[in-house]
Amino acid sequence: MKRPTNLFFVLATAAVVSACAGEVELSQPSGGTEAVPPGPSDTVGDEDSTFDHDNSGVDPFDLLERIEVEGPPIYAARMHGCSKVRYRTLGNMLASLGASLEAIDPVSAGSLYRTGFNALGGPNYPARVRENVAVTTSAASRAFDIFAAAAPEIIANISAQPRCQIDGVGPEIFDESGACTEAGVTCLLGVPATAQHLEICDLTVNRATSAEVGRELAVATLLAAAHTCE
Predict the structure, then answer these.
(1) Which helix (DSSP H) or strand (DSSP E) does residue 134 occupy?
(2) Cβ(95)–Cβ(87) below 8 Å
(3) 90, 92, 94, 96: CA torsion to nearest 10
């Protein structure tokens, strides 16, 4: 009978202590004041206790202004991701269109091409310098000069070039009325000509000081646009 009595005493004591502890936790602070709930700043950390979030994002108004100036991202990515035509490729293209690379006239397309090796970013393999593939100002300027100088030769000789001949007959860029032909512009660009290509070509011809100058400007403009990511 002594062991059950002791066990009962221990259980009763534990219950009393537990009840007292609960009363202490729920009792009001001394002095009669009510407990103050924690404020917002009590649970907010500082730079030493929180993760450093990057708040240096682009201002939306700055982004809008940049898009208005530079164009949409898809256009900017295309322009900045485009490389220039390689030096040897440019020469092969000019020759295939009817321009002579051996011409000795200083302002001919062939002469401008040969003397423009450095301006066009040609490679210097003995010095272990690769070709510059970026569209630099000097490369673009020299390429435009070459296209303008090559235009008369291309207009006169393109139909005799095998690159666009069918059964031995090649297309002319302009018809008898002076209008741009779809087959001729397709041969010139190397891709199917669109209505916009023909419209630009005709507008250039019609707005020039003379029909001859207009045809040369149209050919040079289309070549320049086709080989500068336009």
Answers:
(1) none
(2) no
(3) -150
Residue 109 covered by a domain: yes
Residue in this structure with the two tokens 């916009």, named with its chain if needed:
196
193-219 pLDDT, tens per residue? 999 999 999 999 999 999 999 999 999
pTM: 0.66
Domain coverage including residue 125: 79-226
172, pLDDT greater than 90: yes
Three-state DSSP state, 174: strand
**195-207 vs 211-226: helix axis angle to the nearest 10?**
140
Report helix, strand or coil for 230: coil
- DSSP labels, 10-68: HHHHHHHHHHHHHHHHHSPPTTSPPPPPPPGGGG---TTTS------PPPHHHHHHHHH
Per residue in 63-89, pLDDT (tens digit) is: 888 888 877 877 777 666 678 899 999
Residue 212 lies in a domain: yes
